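Whiteboard transcription, Tuesday session. T.W. wrote the structure tokens on the left side:
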């Protein structure tokens, strides 16, 4: 379960001296629907208990990411504050990928597919009408046979927009005091979802804090790029961004442009060092 996994990673009340709550519940059913703030979503699904908090400090481990270039505060808010359905929603821009050979024809996915994009043919095989799919991700949650899964080949820009919209939906819905911290320590090329850990791409650079998530991610990106270039001057940086070189399909700086355009913060910042 998520609770057990969290405890194994050190998020244990006996170690922390504080309760550890999974904000979307033991079975990920505790969610709240809030209005979308962009063009992709009418509604966004957030972890229900988060919106009950009186204040929040978001804590992010800054790393590279194979879909978004880098994973920082905005990505953490978008994915971390979404319920399980919300996470799927962001990833499901072009509908699921179908592994038809595993299908047992139970029809669970067909029942939850409101636009009728999924159907069982005469032989009981699942079929997807891509044009009818709205990317709601309901089917990913319904299928227990692992026939339907996230389409990682989706257009990367599309995914960034969806992710930033989710971050914005949370920032709009959460009206209590909120600050952000970003740990530029052990900055690995891939995100922490991986079951392995690569060598860091640069020396530890510090811990950043701000009320502005966009400024914090811009500063994190600039500091990591500078640290990588200093340590490995031969490393090519597409547009000055080493993550675009590590993950060629990505454009991390576009996250910050989108977020600034959406009014989630400013890319302009000044660094103040606290010893
Ligand atoms: S349930 Fe949603 S994501 Fe799945 S096929 Fe239907 S519309 Fe697409
Ligand atoms: S839920 Fe999974 S197993 Fe059942 S019909 Fe849909 S794809 Fe097939």
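and on the right, the sequence the group agreed on:
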């Amino acid at each position: 379960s998520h609770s057990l996994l969290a405890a194994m990673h050190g998020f244990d009340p006996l170690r922390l001296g504080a309760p550890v709550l999974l904000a979307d519940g033991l079975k990920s059913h505790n969610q709240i629907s809030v209005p979308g703030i962009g063009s992709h979503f009418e509604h966004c699904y957030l972890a229900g208990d988060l919106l009950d908090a009186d204040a929040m400090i978001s804590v992010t481990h800054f790393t590279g990411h194979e879909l978004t270039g880098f994973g920082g505060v905005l990505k953490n808010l978008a994915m971390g504050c979404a319920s399980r359905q919300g996470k799927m929603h962001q990833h499901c821009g072009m509908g699921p990928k179908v592994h038809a050979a595993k299908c047992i024809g139970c029809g669970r996915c067909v029942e939850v597919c409101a636009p009728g994009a999924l159907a069982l043919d005469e032989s009981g095989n699942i079929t997807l009408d891509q044009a009818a799919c709205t990317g709601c991700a309901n089917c990913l949650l319904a299928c227990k046979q692992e026939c339907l899964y996230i389409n990682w080949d989706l257009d990367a820009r599309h995914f960034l927009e969806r992710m930033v919209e989710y971050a914005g939906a949370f920032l709009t819905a959460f009206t209590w005091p909120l600050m952000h911290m970003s740990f530029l320590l052990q900055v690995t090329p891939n995100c922490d979802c991986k079951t392995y850990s690569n060598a860091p791409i640069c020396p530890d650079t510090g811990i950043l804090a701000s009320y502005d998530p966009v400024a914090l991610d811009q500063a994190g990106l600039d500091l990591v790029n500078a640290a990588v270039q200093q340590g490995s001057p031969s490393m090519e940086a597409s547009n000055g961004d080493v993550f675009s070189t590590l993950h060629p399909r990505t454009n991390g700086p576009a996250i910050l442009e989108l977020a600034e355009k959406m009014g989630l913060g400013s890319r302009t910042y000044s660094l103040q060092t606290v010893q």
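Someone added at the bottom: The chain has a mean pLDDT of 90.
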